[in-house]
Amino acid sequence: MRKLLLWMARNPWLKERLPKLWFAKRAIRRFMPGEDAESALDAGVMFRADGISSMFTRLGENITRLEEGDETAEHYLGLMGDIQARDLDGEVSVKLTQLGFDLDVERTMAHTARLAERAAETGKTLWIDMEGSGYTEGTIAFYERLKQDHANTGLCLQAYLRRTAADIQRLLPLDPQIRLVKGAYAEPATIAYQTRHDVDANYVALAVSLLEGARAGRKVRLGLGTHDVRLIEQIAEHASAMGLPKTSVEVEMLYGIRMDQQRRLAKDGYLVRDLIAYGHAWYPWYMRRLAERPANVMFALRQMIG
Ligand SMILES: Cc1cc2nc3c(=O)[nH]c(=O)nc-3n(C[C@H](O)[C@H](O)[C@H](O)COP(=O)(O)OP(=O)(O)OC[C@H]3O[C@@H](n4cnc5c(N)ncnc54)[C@H](O)[C@@H]3O)c2cc1C
After folding, report:
1. How far from 226 is each of 55, 229, 254, 283, 285, CA to CA, in Å?
2. What does DSSP assign to residue 133?
């Protein structure tokens, strides 16, 4: 089921047609407050009341015209102003292929640098998502360059990839800001752990290696981008055993998933940030959410019918 859904996520024929169906628009509401930025910002205001910070992303990837990347960069600059106007502790996360990475790396760098500068004006971090494995090395090399002049940038790394332990050692000297996730794409066994047990074990080991970096004096910001509360609490115990406070990690979850836990963790003194996605280009992103938990397919079907 997971493989089928991830194949559907990449299929251009389905990508063109499925999102136009009314019931698909209805089903997506579980993971998105709305398609426009205004709905996302309103959700951020709601989370603030529960002591939860936010992270915003306008969905889109693998653009085919450079102008789309230019427009996306302008959009995010405007959004940062809107976040500031609402006095939200809100950050922005972008996909490099949504800014034109497939077409022109230098233009993508110029966009990303501008966004990082704007984020720095309000003391915020600009985050870079991690995409499929064809982009891993390019994205890390891009981050290394960006980080030299823009300390306020963060990168997502995926625990299912075997290479990530080495990537962390490579990035630690840069005082990185890392969002650690399990990984959302279909990757072969040659480069990625395949079982839940192996991915989870690697997730904990990677988080601990970042915490050890922090204890050794590196300025590491660690976001745990997972809904796996068992792993989060395990990592918090490791932090505590190392003499680090609960707030040495930030819990990052997606809008619409385990909201009860997001509120509970915030109440228990964790730093919690909710990633709120919006925009029209939600199809591949939504299919990856279904693939993460096939029970969501039943949920989506029920919403379509009911
Ligand atoms: C803030 C954030 C940013 C992310 N950024 C990226 C990125 O840049 N690149 C990337 O490859 N991946 C990204 N991901 C996705 C990530 O890689 C995983 O695919 C996703 O988080 C599901 O794995 P999990 O860690 O929650 O653990 P799982 O083991 O999949 O889930 C743990 C528990 O959480 C609940 N759960 C998990 N997913 C769902 C769901 N879709 N619907 C309902 N319940 C669910 C279930 O109860 C499940 O038992 C991001 C995730 C988050 C939270």
Report:
1. 14, 8, 8, 21, 16
2. G
- Quick one: which H or E segment has residue 94? strand 90-94
How many whole angstroms from 22 Cα to the centroid of ligand 1? 26
The helix (H) or strand (E) run that includes residue 127 is: strand 126-128
Q: What is the CATH number assigned to the segment(s) 33-281?
A: 3.20.20.220
Residue 10 has pLDDT above 60, yes or no: yes
Joined together, the tokens standing for residue 182 give: 């399990």
Q: Which of 233, 288, 235, 238 is nearest to 261 (CA)?
A: 233
Q: What share of the chain is helix, strand, coil (3-state, %, to 5)?
A: 55, 15, 30
Question: Quick check: 33 pLDDT over 80?
Answer: yes
CA of 184 to the centre of ligand 1 (A): 7
pLDDT in tens, 113-154: 999 999 999 999 999 999 999 999 999 999 999 999 999 999
**Cβ-Cβ contacts under 8 Å for 22 (sequence gap 6 or more):** none
Question: What separation in angstroms does the CA of 117 have from each of 68, 196, 275, 286?
Answer: 21, 38, 21, 30
- Whether this prediction's pTM lies above 0.85 is answered by yes
Residue among 135, 163, 181, 229 whose CB has most ligand 1 atoms within 8 A, to mutate = 181
Determine if ligand 1 sits within 6 Å of the CB of residue 182.
yes
Pick from 286, 279, 281: which is nearest to 56 by CA? 279
pLDDT at residue 306 is higher than 70: no
State whether residue 27 is helix, strand or coil. Answer: helix
Per-residue CA distances from 255 to 102, 217, 278 (Å): 28, 33, 10
Task: Report the catalytic residues.
Answer: 129, 179
Tokens 């990530």 sit at which residue? 164
